[in-house]
Amino acid sequence: MIKYLLILLFPIVSFSQNKILHENFFNSYDEFKETSIETRRFKHGEIQPLIDSLKSIKGFEVTLLGRSIQGRDISMISVGKGETDVLLWSQMHGDESTATAAIFDIFNYLKTDQSILKNLKVHFIPMLNPDGAEVFSRRNAIGIDINRDALKLQSPESQILKNTRDSLKAEFGFNLHDQSKYYNANKTDKPATFSFLAPAFNHEKDINESRGIAMRIIVKMNEIIQRYAKGQVGRYDDAFEPRAFGDNMQRWGTTTILIESGGFLNDPEKQFIRKINYTSILSALQIISTENYTNASLDQYLSIPKNDRKLYDLKIKNLSFSYLGIDFTVDLGIQYDEIENTNHSDFYYIGKINDIGDLSTHFGYETLDAAGFSFKVGETYPKILNDFEQFKSLDFPILISQGYTSVTVNNMPKEIKFTSYPMNIIDLEKVVIPKNNVIPKSPIGFGSNPTFLLSKNDKVVYAVINGFVYSLSDNKNNVKNGLVK
Ligand SMILES: [Zn+2]
Description:
The structure is a single chain. This protein is of the alpha/beta class. It has 13 helices and 24 strands. The chain has two domains: 2-308, Zn peptidases (Aminopeptidase), CATH 3.40.630.10; 311-483, no CATH class. Helices cover 28% and strands 29% of the residues. The strands form six sheets. The chain has an eight-stranded mixed beta sheet, with helices on both faces. A five-stranded antiparallel beta sheet has the order 15-20-21-22-23, with no helix packed on it. Strands 13-12-11-14 form a four-stranded mixed beta sheet, with no helix packed on it. A hairpin with a 4-residue loop joins strand 22 (468-471) and strand 23. Helix 2 packs antiparallel against helix 10, helix 5 crosses helix 10 (271-289) and helix 8 crosses helix 10. Residues 93, 96, 177 line the site of zinc ion (ZN). Zinc ion binds at residues 93, 96, 177.
């Protein structure tokens, strides 16, 4: 009772403290960022030394919970001396690493200040699925989706999570994931950089006290994230999934919050998103420790726009071209697929036309209006180059302005699949001579690699190479990589 009175008496003080704190977390982030992690494709071998180093830090407890199928340690790091147990687990899907990186930033912060935890004891399980992380794939080593194994518990990783929850009887849980960058906040062109869910614990989607608290905490976290990514928060679908961990955690009595890290313009390695994870999770711990969520309403939760999936990397609208003598005007939805190297540590892009037609209901991270431009298929430079070195010395803007989007190269090293240049390479040894008497393909095909030119008054203004735009008018090269075909 006294606790609630205090909250009623000091709401303003507590609000302003929150505000100052999340700004402090955000502004001082660089001091605490774990600099040994810089991309999404880090592996267990890179985080284990960081976990080991925490064993000697005052106030940190490291517990070996068990091992993955392939024998990798799964550890829990606990901080704080309070009565209320909060459990956070990340990367149960091996290719969803953003929150794991943020957790190591949070450790660095907590090394210097644990006062925000007050009455909490916070337990982190970073990288619950290290075998999946090793090959940057969602599932574990035998192909089970851990998030569909909360009931049968067929995998050691699932057993570890369930046993930990049960032994702690955690009052709060954070289920930390990544979602496709193609999700947007419903009916807007804003990516769902974050999506939240207070998972349902039954098919009726009832809201009991525990689930209601999760919703209220989400309202508070949303308010903070709006400061840094305005309009870029979505509400995840709350259909009950009987086999999922979040839903069952809620059913087992842990107030559970699902956070999905999505996409953000020009943040392919999700490092800004990681910073917002850091800011919002630290803020959430402070919000829980001060119970500063009680003034949030369920209506506020429901007013967060739903997640939708209508985003492309690039939308080109009003593109006119002709095929077999027929004129068409269409929109293109272009997606950049990540093609990994063999040890799953890096990638390059292949652009792909993922939809064609009326895409007026869809959006792009970037949009190019092709109205008034004439479409032209890019040509192959007539001279065959002797080797890759010769290719590198070409003047690409000049070649593009002359209408070329590919160059034939002899003696191409077999291991080179892409280059950092805004031009595709045709490997002479792989050249296929087209057959006669075959109906030619459309220059814009579903699933094809978008490479073409847009001209005005016979002058090339834009080249689209491997799905990326090179703007000749201001010499702006957005081509992340060209391909070797
Ligand atoms: Zn996931």
